[in-house]
Amino acid sequence: MRLAVLGAGPGGYVAAIRAAQAGAEVTVIEDNEVGGTCLTRGCIPTKALVASAVMLANMRRSEEYGIEIRGEVIPNAAKIFERKNTIVHTLATGIRNIFKARRIALRQGRGRFVSSHEILVTGKDGSQQSVAFDRAIIATGSRPLQIAAFPFDGKRILSSDDAVNLNSIPKSLIIIGAGYIGCEYASIFRDLGSEVTVLEKLPVALSSEDAEISEILEREFKKKKITLHTGVAVDNVVVNDGGVLITLRGGKELSAEKTLISVGREFNSSGIGIDEIGMTKGVCGEIIVNDRMETNISGIYAIGDVTGVMMLAHVASRQGCIAAKNAMGGDERIDYRVVPTAIFTSPEIASVGLREQQAKEKGITVTIGRFPFRVLGKAQAIGEIAGIIKILSDSVSDRVLGVHIIGPHASDLIHEAALAMRNGLTSKDIAETIHAHPTLSEGLKEAAEDVYGEAIHTLKR
Amino acid sequence: MNPDDLKYHKEHTWVKVSGKKATIGITDHAQDALGDIVYIDLPEVDTDVETNSEIGEIESTKATSSIISPLSGRVLEVNEDLTESPEVVNDDPYGKGWVAVIEFDDTSEMDDLMDSAEYAKYIEEAK
């Protein structure tokens, strides 16, 4: 079985390895570094930057912990970005080494389908080679959405791809779009010392999260002196000598050294020959797939961002495993019911399942348990007390329907909830599980107890 | 402990009247119960506020709690110093820790507030 994988992001490289494990002869086609957006421009590099930003923020709080710093604590932008590059390089090398060990061929260049059994790869030097395949998996991903009226210039008007390679800390930064990318960069650059303003056209930041979580993040932004304007539309962005001048609808003007536009992503589904072979795409250009990750063309699968299902690295990886197994003759179906997400703002946010506003829309009656981190011994001990854990349990069956966390290590705490939800467990199951003390995980147990009004460490309900 | 020239609201805010203006803040009892205050979300200048409604929030290392307005009116001024140094409320709740100045119309609302002796008794009973 010859399998071609177009794109080596977290969907494509995982699919390639899975298929190779199952005995396929795999060729991966990638015109950039392996690892895709996730490893080279997204998840991983931003987490490296978050780590530097948090380190600095913590050093500035050191006296609270009884540590005196003699002398100035200063971020060195060049070194911060260099550290990030080293981490990305190490991980990319790791993927290349796995490819080698698994005898997965890597063809560097842009791939384009010339038939339903052949991809033509054009290298940066113009050289061309053909990759013939029995089955193929498309994993070409997505890219930052550009606004035609004020396109990215990489210097003043930045995409998230530009921001990750900025190599400097702007004095001031206006971020357009308060989704998870905008909010993560707001936290990073604010902690590194930039003056940060965030503009959002919807009435709240992180509108896809539980409304209560958004509200707490907005307060934490206020504490950090990140200026957030919600419900505002940007009419124009002009580059001038000093930086950028942004005009809001209504005429108000804002200026900053740079602006980062993070208003969404678009699919990498054109120029890869799929229209010519008759592949079905949706209205936004996403490739239509079924729950076996099959496109309308027999033997060709699509996974990850380009399918437009959920633009998350971990969903792409899961889809990649399913596609690889099916390409090798299996019959696996994807299950999107329990997908945890994490947002690395400061404090972190993580969630899984139903939001409270969704429960209302859908007419599902839920009982809500909440627990504030500040009441936990561990949170006090580590000096990170902001945030809450919120559980939505079905009022009839007590099954856990959603969990939302904002606070320290939220991204690590969410998986107990995901496992509970995948197995149909109740908030009582969580409450009656002994949790080690003193840990942040106890917060989930207390939130589960609060569903019954029985949390130990709250004063009243 | 609680100054005699102030009026007190059951949600532990105080009022100091001067003509049509009232300075408000949170009481010593409230700051003591909250513990170390780490953040105060102040009302916005020029907004209208109503008696018994939330006009801001106080976060301490122990809890997050609402600041309840003791009277109705319009916010003229807020104590911006609290944004930088919220701990001032712990140190000086009736002085430098004032929260806002409100212009009010309905003087009858003052009658619903407690004097210092009544407030002292109210706290004692709540214990």
Number of helices of chain A: 13
Supply the number of structural domains of chain B.
1
How many helix segments of chain B?
4
**Overall 3D form of chain A:** globular
Mean pLDDT level of chain A:
96
Are there runs of chain A of 5+ residues with pLDDT below 50, and where?
Answer: none
Low-pLDDT residue spans of chain B: none
Overview of this protein structure:
The complex is a heterodimer of chains A (461) and B (127). Chain A is α/β, with parallel strands linked by helices and 461 residues long. Chain A has three domains: 2-143 and 266-327, FAD/NAD(P)-binding domain, CATH 3.50.50; 157-263, FAD/NAD(P)-binding domain; 347-450, FAD/NAD-linked reductase, C-terminal dimerisation domain (Enolase-like, domain 1, 2-Layer Sandwich). Chain A has 13 helices and 23 strands. Chain A has helices at 12-21, 36-41, 43-60, 77-101, 160-163, 180-191, 211-224, 313-327, 356-362, 377-382, 410-422, 427-431, 442-450; strands at 2-6, 25-30, 105-108, 110-115, 118-122, 128-132, 135-138, 142-144, 157-158, 172-176, 195-200, 227-230, 234-240, 243-248, 253-256, 258-261, 265-267, 300-302, 341-343, 349-353, 366-372, 388-394, 400-406. Chain A has a five-stranded parallel beta sheet with strand order 3-2-1-7-18, with helices on one face. In chain A, strands 9-16-10-11-12 form a five-stranded parallel beta sheet. A five-stranded antiparallel beta sheet of chain A has the order 19-20-23-22-21, sandwiched between helices. The longest helix of chain A has 25 residues, at 77-101. Chain A is globular and about 65 Å long. Chain A starts with a strand and ends in an 11-residue tail after the last helix. Chain B is of the alpha+beta class and 127 residues long. Chain B has one domain: RNA polymerase II/Efflux pump adaptor protein, barrel-sandwich hybrid domain (OB fold (Dihydrolipoamide Acetyltransferase, E2P), Beta Barrel), CATH 2.40.50. In chain B, 20% of the residues lie in helices and 34% in strands. In chain B, the strands form two sheets. Chain B has a six-stranded antiparallel beta sheet. In chain B, a hairpin with a 4-residue loop joins strand 1 (7-8) and strand 2 (13-18). The longest helix of chain B is centred in the last third of the chain and has 11 residues, at 116-126. The mean pLDDT of chain B is 93. Classes of the chains: A alpha/beta (461), B alpha+beta (127). The interface between A and B is small, with 10 and 9 residues.
